[in-house]
Specification:
Layout (H helix, E strand, L loop, with lengths): L2 H11 L5 H7 L8 E7 L12 H6 L2 E7 L3 H9 L5 E4 L3 H7 L6 E5 L1 E2 L3 E5 L14 E4 L4 H13 L7 E4 L4 H10 L4 E2 L7 H6 L2 E8 L12 E4 L1 H6 L1 H19 L2 H12 L3 H10 L1 E2 L5 H13 L18 H8 L1
Helix pairs in contact: 2-10, 10-14, 11-12
Length: 327
């Protein structure tokens, strides 16, 4: 999705930025309280998620937060019934459906950003042609890998024209490989994109932005729930979405507050948190049509075993977000 579309969606939510918070305040607390088990990751665009527990407690929603290192791990836990709500990658709804897991429903996108290949200082990366022969660190099957692979396909860049180096473990391993010169560039995620730039051993290859593919777009993730939670705990999920959107709007309106939220979530130092806040735009960027395109493209790429684009609409519930907009 183009950035202007995301900003338009955010503007629609912000018609009087106090509306979502007001809606929460006017809603009677749930009695007895309802517990939501929420899976999340320590990534910058999820800064709102650790800032809403107190507000939700006032509304009779007890949030049990469970941290995961990867989107895929949160998806697995959600499908196993261990979570009610989770933050996952943009492809995870299609992946779930393609593997026969039907008890999942998409709710909203949560942010977007440009996605630049991160080069090691001194490496020439002025065009996609410059990838040829380079050692590029990737996390196969990750959300950013989907974005990167889709962009290469659309630009006609053969995947075997460069040396894809699979990096295991967290993003810190990517940065260590770049700093040591073991790879020429990274395809990774925040905060591991900004860290090499701030620390001076890497740069944003701004001519190599892989966030604008038609198949995937610029989104950074999605909020999803089990169908069971979306029905049996609907009132609690509604309050969770409303609180999340209210905090998302607050942070998006102030990059300084956003940086503080990033620091609280990730433990990063203020300089890196501030740099990341400048890169990311918070907002509900994902649409059903976009997820359909992703599902079709990922099947064509051989990432998922069948085309489930026709199933997406039946596993997407826009009413949670619509309720926040109108109340």
């Amino acid at each position: 999705m183009q950035r202007r579309t995301m900003l338009g969606g955010l503007a629609a939510l912000a018609l009087g930025a106090g509306l979502p918070a007001a809606a929460i305040a006017q809603t009677a607390p749930l009695n007895p309280p309802v517990t939501l088990t929420v899976g999340y990751q320590k990534v910058a665009h999820l800064a709102p998620i650790v800032l809403i527990e107190d507000e939700l407690k006032k509304q009779g929603v007890e949030v049990k937060m469970v941290e995961f290192a990867r989107y895929a791990d949160a998806r697995t836990a959600l499908l196993a019934g261990s979570l009610d709500v989770a933050t996952v990658g943009p492809a995870d709804l299609a992946i779930s459906l393609a593997n026969g897991a039907k008890d999942v429903v998409g709710i909203m996108g949560i942010g977007s950003s440009p996605k630049y290949v991160i080069g090691k200082n001194g490496v020439k990366l002025d065009s996609w042609e410059d990838l040829k022969g380079k050692k590029i660190a990737i996390a196969p099957g990750s959300a950013v890998w989907f974005q990167f692979a889709a962009t290469l396909t659309e630009k006609g860049v053969p995947y075997n024209s460069f040396n894809a180096v699979n990096i295991q473990g967290g993003g810190a391993n990517f940065n260590a490989a770049l700093e040591k010169g073991e790879v020429d560039a990274l395809v990774t995620w925040e905060p591991f994109e900004s860290i090499p730039v701030v620390k001076g051993y890497g740069f944003f290859a701004k001519n190599l932005d892989y966030s604008q593919s038609k198949a995937v777009g610029a989104e950074l993730g999605m909020l999803v729930a089990t169908k069971a939670a979306a029905t049996q705990k609907r009132a609690a999920v509604e309050r969770f979405v409303a609180a999340y959107v209210a905090k998302m709007l607050e942070l998006q309106s102030s990059k300084a507050k956003f940086a503080e939220g990033i620091q609280k979530l990730t433990g990063l130092d203020p300089q890196i948190s501030a740099a990341i806040a400048q890169q990311i735009n918070l907002g509900p960027v994902v649409t059903v049509d976009q997820i359909k395109r992703q599902a079709k493209a990922f099947n064509e790429l051989g990432v998922i075993p069948k085309d489930v684009s026709g199933e997406i609409e039946g596993n997407w519930d826009a009413s949670f977000l619509a309720k926040v907009k109108t109340n």
